[in-house]
Amino acid sequence: MDVPGGGFIAFGLLVALFSALTWKYARRLLTVTRTLKHGVRAIGECVRVESDNVSVDAKRYFFAFRTPEGHTVEFEDLAGWSMAVGSTVTIAYDPAAPARTATIAGRGSWSPVLQCVALIIGCGFGALGFLTVFLFTVLGGQ
Fold first, then answer.
1. H-state helical runs in the chain
2. How many CA atoms lie within 13 A of 131 on its CB side?
3. How far apart are CA 107 and CA 112, in angstroms?
4. Is the CB of residue 41 less than 8 Å from the CB of residue 50?
5. Is the separation of the CB atoms in 113 and 95 below 8 Å?
6. How far is CA 121 from CA 36, 76, 105, in A?
7. Which of 33, 36, 92, 83 is nearest to 62 (CA)?
């Protein structure tokens, strides 16, 4: 059963999704670079690793640290596959907004900046690819 305009909707949503992800990671890259350059350092640790049931490799890493004022801040960030609960990490953050700006200052083989750049490139190419398919297939075929 063919849904009229289904191609417009499907490819339009995929373009929107990948564009939104590109924008999200571009904003995160700006925050990470600013925080790494001008932020305060603290020692933190990995407090939990959550795995979704879809893929063994798809994990979410949560970290926590204490500010000099004694507040415990927990945040989610990208991490390497070998990161385990209890692993000690160096955190960089902006004291004005620690929960929003906290990032791991070094993750091992990939720097936080390179991870964001890789996500921006991947999501950007995804958006461009789906936009190309949308323009040439959906619009060209109608």
1. 6-38, 98-101, 112-133
2. 11
3. 7
4. no
5. no
6. 21, 21, 21
7. 83
Q: Which of 114, 112, 38, 118 is nearest to 75 (CA)?
A: 112
Spatial separation of the C-alpha atoms in residues 75 and 37, rounded to whole Å = 19
Tell me the C-alpha distance between 43 and 105, whole Å.
Answer: 10
HSE value, Cβ hemisphere, 13 Å, CA-based, for 45: 7
pLDDT tens string, the chain, 142 residues long: the values are: 466 666 778 888 999 999 999 999 999 899 888 888 888 999 999 999 888 766 656 788 899 999 999 999 999 887 766 778 888 888 999 998 998 889 888 655 567 788 789 889 999 999 999 999 888 877 676 5
For residues 10 and 16, give the distance between their C-alpha atoms in angstroms, rounded to a whole number: 10
Q: What is this structure's pTM?
A: 0.72
Q: At what angle do helices 6-38 and 112-133 cross, to 10 degrees?
A: 160
Residues 6+ apart with CB under 8 A from 16: none
Indicate the helix (H) or strand (E) that contains 94.
Answer: none
